[in-house]
Amino acid sequence: MTEAVANLATQPLEVVRKVRKNNPEKTRESILQAAITEFVQQGLSGARVDAIAERTATSKRMIYYYFGSKEQLYLEVLVKLYGDIRGTESRLDLASLPPVLAIRRLVEFTFDHHDRNVDFVRIVSIENIHYGEYVKQSPVIRQMSNVVLDTLGKTLRRGEEEGVFRPGIDVLDVHLLISSFCFYRVSNRHTFGEIFQIDLPDEQVKQRHKAMICEAVLRYIQG
Questions:
Q1: What is the distance between the alpha carbons of residues 165 and 108, in angstroms, rounded to a whole number?
Q2: Which residues contact 50 (CB under 8 A, 6 or more apart)?
Q3: Which residues contact 106 (CB under 8 A, 6 or more apart)?
Q4: For a FRET experiment, which of 155, 160, 175, 185 has its CA 20 to 30 Å from that of 149?
Q5: Which residue ranges hold the DNA-binding region (predicted)?
Q6: Which CATH superfamily is domain 72-219 in?
Q7: pLDDT tens digit string along 5-44?
Q8: Which CATH number fits domain 22-67: 1.10.10.60, 3.40.50.620, 1.10.10.10, 3.40.640.10?
């Protein structure tokens, strides 16, 4: 539970009502944050709107008023979590950096974001269980992701023009290479860590892995 949701839940009922009435955006955000927790813990099928209402000291009726249904709320959670990473990526200002440094910044950001945002990894894993059914319903998620691909593509072309990257690199392949490693070490950290007896959250291990994926990506695109 986020601090904002926790604070709201501990307020007297009349205060909560006043907050809801005077700040609908805050109420909506509180519901979203509580929904993230519920969906991460229970999945889409197991999540209960009653539990989300309890987390926000609101009502099912209020949640349905803002989001329409549990499925629509889940879709809004997907949009929010994808939007968080895509929005930050768009502010990395890769165009101001030499191509090699720009790629390194993008890889390091992706690594750190996945490491610090386990909820994002869990929700994406849950969505894959549902075969991407709800992502298909959101052109916004595709649009945000295409912007990132465009920025990465421009960086690769700059590097090719400057002679530091080899020609003919597929931008989606590079994106997949970066994302897959950063995602897997979080999504599979419990099983991988137990089977191979490695502490993936250990700071030295994380720094070694971050350096490794940066080197792997750069070696691939530099040829």
A1: 19
A2: 60
A3: 89, 92, 94, 152, 155, 178
A4: 185
A5: 48-67
A6: Tetracycline Repressor, domain 2 (1.10.357.10)
A7: 344 444 444 434 454 455 788 889 999 999 999 999 999 9
A8: 1.10.10.60
* pLDDT of the residue at 69: 95
Domain residue spans of the chain: 22-67, 72-219
Give the model confidence (pLDDT) of 134-176 as tens digits. Answer: 999 999 999 999 988 999 999 999 999 999 999 999 999 999 9
d(CA 60, CA 35): 12
- What proportion of the chain, given as a percentage, has pLDDT over 90? 81
C-alpha pair distances (Å), 221 with each of 23, 68, 168, 213, 217: 49, 46, 9, 12, 6
